[in-house]
Design a protein that fits this description.
The chain is α+β, with helices and mostly antiparallel strands. The chain is 53% helix and 14% strand. A 6-stranded mixed beta sheet has the order 1-2-6-3-5-4, sandwiched between helices. The two termini are 21 Å apart.
């Protein structure tokens, strides 16, 4: 039973802690942990969050308790002190004492078990309805009229824009404060000849404090369509299955000792004016320059010797994937809904659906059921992927570091490339590769309106059209301003403020032309679709004064010129290269954004209305009851309903 399994989990945790307190950690695991912590502290990578604010918040953790605010920033002495303790005491005693004091012998411990209850929602609804009925019985007609008046008053307040005089109190920038030139990331492209192939090396001369950020991208030209569903698991295998020389734990520790982290994942995207997608398996990692040779050796070892014949470990990964997908569909249903809609329209999105959407979830469920009986076939498929993906042909290397560091690692890069075969092993059925050329329409999902039923109390509603294929609209920078403005005004007010959803927004993909509406944790479904459709009239009838238009443009530029650390700059340039976006195009879009006019909003509204009327679909992740209600309310959409969970 669930209760028995929960008890087993608690017992396992406590027994593991007891074992660690007695036997301690291995020297290699301690070294890996220390290297990982020190690398993180030295790199101080705060992502898109400004480093200055990060340091301030870190210092506040001590300051609010009347301690020295600079103490949390002085980590080097503390780390050296800890290393000294490791030399003075055996690791087993040092960590064992800490485990016993703070975990095993700590009386302040609670075990919280969460158990599913299939009737809970009905019970809560009944309880709430009962309270409402009791309140209604005690209300007079005058009370009801007053309640209705206040409700209408609230709705009016929610829909009324803030007065202009109030908005003018907020300090703002002017367009003259925004740089006219787009920010360029230093990049150089060269060819490395190895064997019979030429490999592109993209480098970015940026100060990184002796850290090398590296991506090895392998195109998916030899991956057959029927194995796309295995790609995410295959990527996990590279770092979570070990090699023929090291088990999973040993490999993880080596990665921790020698690098700042290593991961593998798939990347797919549509390309402007092309049916062929951009599709790669990317191995991404970082290391200090003196250990970059070790980093390359680890990647080479993984590629050549990854252990793929471990059924039990692989089965565990499959079950983890299924559990993660089920939780994500309930908690982040809008990503699944919009993924389904995009998969109806272009090859890259369709491939993404089979690798990570609802289609992949169904494939994972089927895989879990047949794994024991068909392991030999699954193992062979994994080996086929390995032999098809890792090759020099179509490969791209992306490196970010200062020029001196880039020069010092040339031999390591060349050695790694030389270790790869020239070409991959193509499947016997060449027709299975047509998807990579954008010539397999069978990969696309059928165009239909869908309701995906899961156990949820809220809805995630998506609607999509394509501005390039369904209208004569041409790419223009003003579309970025318009879609952001639409999200923060009409959709915010109608879907979130009035509708009660946690989020309502839209996005326009300038590469594919997809214009998408999405809502997050939404109590409505049909009303939200109506609000999406109302966006076009909102844009066409819009009136904007100069100040409001300027604010919209500047807000957009804030996203475009967002704060980036060195690794992010190098990766951004890498993505632009994969998507064939030039600096000249970026400058043109910037000029168009900065010169956005009110008429652009109205023209976009006309184009969006034409696209929605010509070819648009809806997909919602919803509950069984809400699905039935939507089927009745919107019979014109002919919803296809399927029970996913």
């Amino acid at each position: 039973s669930s209760e028995e399994n929960l008890k087993k989990v608690e017992t396992l945790v406590l027994e593991t802690l007891e074992s660690l307190a007695e036997k301690g950690f291995s020297d290699s695991s301690i070294e890996a942990a220390l290297n990982t912590i020190e690398f993180s502290l030295r790199e101080n990578n705060t992502g898109s969050f400004p480093r200055g604010l990060s340091l301030m918040l870190r210092s506040m953790q001590a300051w609010i308790y009347d301690k020295d605010p600079l103490e949390p920033l002085k980590w080097e002495d503390q780390l050296e002190g800890f290393k000294a303790k490791l030399k003075e005491q055996t690791p087993t005693k040092l960590f064992g004492d800490l485990i016993r004091k703070y975990l095993i012998d700590n009386p302040h411990r609670v075990t919280v078990n969460l158990l599913p209850n299939t009737t809970l929602q009905a019970e809560l609804d009944g309880e709430e309805q009962g309270k409402l009925d009791e309140l209604r019985k005690g209300m007079t007609d005058e009370d009801m009229q007053e309640l209705m008046r206040k409700t209408q008053e609230l709705k009016t307040h929610q829909e009324t824009p803030d007065p202009a005089e109030a908005l003018k109190c907020i300090p703002t920038l002017d367009l003259a404060d925004i740089p006219k030139e787009s920010q360029e990331i230093p990049s150089s492209l060269r060819e490395l000849t190895s064997g019979g192939e030429k490999v592109d090396i993209l480098s970015h001369d940026i100060f990184t404090n002796d850290v090398v950020y590296a991506e090895f991208a392998f195109d998916m030209s030899s991956v057959p369509k029927h194995l796309l569903y295995l790609i995410p698991l295959f990527c996990r295998c590279l770092t979570e299955m070990g090699t023929t020389k090291e088990d999973f734990v040993e490999l993880t520790e080596r990665i921790g000792r020698k690098t700042g982290g290593l991961s593998a994942y798939s990347f797919t995207s549509a390309l402007k004016d092309e049916d062929k997608p951009s599709a790669y398996i990317i191995v991404r990692g970082k290391s200090t320059k003196d250990k970059f040779g070790d980093y390359c050796e680890i990647v080479e070892d993984i590629i050549q010797n990854v252990e793929l014949d471990n059924k039990e470990r692989f089965k565990q990964m499959v079950l983890e994937t299924i559990a993660g997908q089920e939780a994500a569909m309930v908690g982040r249903g809008h990503t699944y809904a919009i993924g389904r809609l995009h998969a109806q329209r272009d090859t890259a999105s369709a491939a993404g659906e089979y690798m990570g959407g609802v289609a992949n979830y169904h494939a994972m469920k089927g895989l879990a059921e047949k794994l024991d009986a068909d392991w030999d076939q699954v193992h062979n498929d994994l080996k086929l992927l390995k032999n098809a993906i890792f090759k020099k042909k179509g490969m791209l290397v992306n490196l970010t570091a200062d020029e001196k560091t880039l020069t010092s690692i040339d031999k390591d890069v060349a050695g790694f490339v030389d270790s790869l075969p020239d070409v991959g092993q193509a499947p016997s059925d060449q027709g299975s590769l047509l998807w990579y050329e954008g010539k397999d329409s069978g990969l696309l999902l059928p165009k239909q309106n869908e309701l995906l039923v899961v156990p949820t109390q809220v809805n995630y509603v998506g609607k999509c059209t394509n501005m390039y294929k369904d209208t004569p609209y041409k790419q223009h920078g003003s579309s970025v301003v318009i879609s952001k403005y639409l999200s923060t005004t009409w959709l915010w007010d109608r879907v979130r403020v009035v509708g009660g959803a946690y989020g309502g927004f839209c996005s326009f993909d300038n590469t594919s032309g997809h214009f998408s509406f999405m809502s997050y944790r939404d109590p409505n479904l049909s009303k939200t679709i109506d609000n999406y459709d109302g966006s076009t009239n909102f844009l066409k009838e819009l009136t904007l004064d100069k100040d409001e238009l300027t604010k919209s443009i500047i807000a957009t530029m804030g996203d475009i010129d967002s704060y980036q650390l060195p690794d992010s700059k190098g990766y951004t340039a890498f993505m632009r290269h994969l998507l064939k976006v030039t600096d000249e195009e970026r400058q043109q879009r910037r000029d168009e954004i900065l010169s956005t006019k009110l008429q652009d909003f109205k023209d976009f509204g006309d184009a969006l209305q034409s696209a929605l009327e010509a070819n648009s679909q809806v997909c919602a992740v919803t509950s069984k009851d809400m699905a039935k209600q939507a089927e009745e309310e919107r019979k014109d959409l002919g919803f296809v309903t399927s029970q996913v969970l």
